[in-house]
Structure formats: structure tokens, C-alpha cells
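FW: tagging you since you asked about this chain on Friday. Here's the raw sequence from the shared folder, copied in full. Didn't touch anything.
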Amino acid sequence: MRYQDETNGYVIKLSIDDEIQSSLTQFAACESIEAAHFWGIGAAKDIVLGSYDLQSKTYRKVEIAGVWEIASLTGSLARAQDGPILHIHGVFSDEQCQTRAGHVFCLVCAATVELFLVELDPGLNRKYDERTGLKLLDL
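HL: got it, structure written out here
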């Protein structure tokens, strides 16, 4: 992972085999960033997506094999009582330009991932919500 500081945020470039969750967590710790929003494009492999079932309060996870184009990646970083939380969603397309989308649990860089991140101040907090079983933004 490499990054540069820009006037309005950061540009982050993941390298082959970098994993997005660990890379962004490491970046945020290095730069003392507690809250941000980000978006990106690139190519990914070893993707694990999920969708949330409100009734059972659990995620259904799906592993996606192969190399996929990142058509759209968006997310946020916020503070929670037990540490920082990344919330990432993505849309991925295969060689036929057919898409898969969902909550991103895992994504490994296949060629490059270009992320554009803007720090938020004073920041975002997440708090557990009994009704949904999720840590939602506490606004």
C-alpha cells in the first residue's frame, strides 16, 4: 500500500495481494484518522460479499472466485466502543460485465485498487442498535 496526502484528503493505492480491511485499518492508524468516507476502483480477487438478514440479525456471506473489476467501491470509517469500524460496499463485474454486489467482508487487490479518502471532522461514532443488531451511525 502506498498513499499521498492531497489538499482535500488522500489517494491510496493498494498493491497486488493487499487486503482492503487490513490496509485501510493500518493507514488510518498511521495517519491518526478516526472517521472518513472513501470510494474506489480497480481489480480484486478473493472477494467475500454479504447481505444482512434483519430477521435473524446475521449476514449471509458469499465467496466470489476469480478476478473481478471493481466497478464501484464505497465506504466509511467510524469509531465504536470496541475500536474503528470499516463499513464497505462494492459492485464487481466479471469478464462478461455481469455484476455482483454487497457488503464487503474481504477483498484482495488483484492488480491495483485506487482509493480516494476524505477525513471527517469531528468524526463519526457507531453504536449498537438492539432493533437491527447492527452498529449504526450515532448521529
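FW: DSSP finds one helix and nine strands in the chain.
HL: agreed, and The helical segments are 20-30.
FW: great, closing this out.
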